[in-house]
Design brief:
With 317 residues, this protein is α+β, with helices and mostly antiparallel strands. Helix content is 19%, strand content 31%.
C-alpha cells in the first residue's frame, strides 16, 4: 500500500517582545490504497453470455471506490460502480477467444491495478456416452507444427521434474520391493526405473527408457479437432497438462508408436489402431470422450460412429 502525506499549514501567533510572527508546522494525513481481493489472473468464461466476473475490493479507510478498465481489450467490456465486469456484446468463440484487460480500483488518491486474461470457451450442446460434447468435422487445412505449437515437456511447478517425469512418478506402481522408484541423480529430477502398467497391451515395464508418455487424445488429432484455434499458452498447457489425469499416460514405447495419431475411427479401418487389451476398450473410450468434453474439442462423424458402435459391442456402461 502507498502512503500519501498532505502537508497542511497552520499558523500560530507567538509573542516575542513587541513582534508577532507566524509559524507554519506540518500536519500529516495518511491514505491507504484500495485492496483487490481474490481476483484471478486468468478466468474461463462460456461464450454467448454477458457476465464475466465481479471484482471484489475494499478500502482500509472506508473511501468510495471507482473502477476502470484499460489494457489490450477494454472496449469489449463494461464495469459497473460495484465492480461487475460484463461483455458489451454477446461474445462468440469463433470470433475471438482471448481477451486481456487491466482492472484499476481507485479511491481518488491511490489506485491498485491487476491484469487479467479472459479465455472464452466454446459451448457444446451435444451428448455422447454421458458427456457434453461438440460435434464437428476436423480442420485438416490448419498448419500443424508440433514442436512450435505444442512443445513438451515443461516443468510446470519448477521442481526440476518435467511433466514426463511427473507422470512417471504419479503412475509408478509401488507394490513390489524388487522394482522401487529410482532416479538418475540425487536431486531426483529424472526417473530411472520402477514399475509401470501399460493398459493398451496389458504389459508391465520396469525401465523408464522403455516407457513413453502418451497423449490419450493425440496432439495432432486435438489440433485438427479445434486446438489449432487455442491461444498459444493454452496449446502449451494442453500438451503438458497434469490437471486432466486421463490425458497423459505412461505406456510402452511400442504401443504409443503404433497408436500414433489415430482416433477411435481407426478401430474399423486398415491401417488403424485400437488397444490390444479388450478389457480396456470401454475405459479408453470413456477417457477419450471425457478429454474432448473438457477441452471442447470436436468429435467428427466417423469418430462418433465408431465410439457408439464399440460402446454397444463391448457392452460398456
Amino acid at each position: 500500500m502507498k502512503k500519501l502525506t498532505l502537508l497542511i499549514g497552520f499558523f500560530a501567533l507567538v509573542g516575542c517582545g513587541n513582534e508577532d510572527r507566524a509559524i507554519s508546522e506540518p500536519f500529516a494525513i495518511s491514505n491507504s490504497a484500495p485492496i483487490i481481493i481474490n481476483l484471478p489472473s486468468e478466468i474461463e468464461v462460456d461464450e454467448l453470455q454477458l457476465s464475466v466476473i465481479s471484482v471484489s475490493a475494499i478500502d482500509p479507510d472506508g473511501d468510495y471506490l471507482r473502477y476502470l478498465l484499460t489494457g489490450d481489450d477494454p472496449g469489449y467490456f463494461n464495469i459497473s460502480g460495484s465492480g461487475e465486469i460484463t461483455f458489451r456484446e454477446v461474445p462468440i468463440y469463433e470470433t475471438k477467444n482471448l481477451y486481456s484487460i487491466n482492472v484499476h480500483v481507485s479511491d481518488n488518491i491511490d489506485t491498485t491495478s491487476q491484469a487479467i486474461s479472459i479465455y472464452l470457451l466454446k459451448v457444446c450442446t451435444n451428448t455422447l456416452i454421458g458427456f457434453s460434447v461438440c460435434y464437428g468435422e476436423e480442420n485438416t487445412t490448419s498448419f500443424y507444427d508440433r514442436d512450435e505449437d505444442y512443445p513438451t515437456w515443461k516443468d510446470s511447478d519448477g521442481d526440476c521434474q518435467n511433466n514426463r517425469h511427473e507422470v512417471l512418478i504419479s503412475e509408478h506402481i509401488d507394490d513390489d520391493p524388487l522394482y522401487p522408484l529410482t532416479f538418475t541423480d540425487n536431486n531426483q529430477c529424472s526417473v530411472a526405473s520402477g514399475k509401470w502398467y501399460d493398459p493398451y497391451d496389458d504389459v508391465y515395464y520396469y525401465s523408464a527408457s522403455d516407457v513413453h508418455i502418451d497423449h490419450v487424445v493425440p496432439l495432432y488429432d486435438a489440433h485438427k479437432s479445434g486446438a489449432w484455434y487455442f491461444p498459444e499458452l493454452k496449446k502449451i498447457r494442453f500438451a503438458n497438462t497434469l490437471d486432466v489425469p486421463e490425458q497423459l499416460m505412461a505406456v510402452g514405447a511400442s504401443s504409443n508408436l503404433s497408436k500414433s495419431s489415430w482416433d477411435p475411427s481407426g478401430w474399423y479401418t486398415t491401417p488403424g489402431w485400437k488397444p490390444n487389451n479388450r478389457t480396456y476398450h470401454c475405459q479408453y473410450l470413456q477417457d477419450w470422450v471425457k478429454i474432448k468434453s473438457i477441452y471442447r474439442l470436436n468429435i467428427d462423424s466417423a469418430e462418433r460412429a465408431a465410439i457408439e458402435k464399440v460402446y454397444l459391442e463391448s457392452s460398456c456402461s
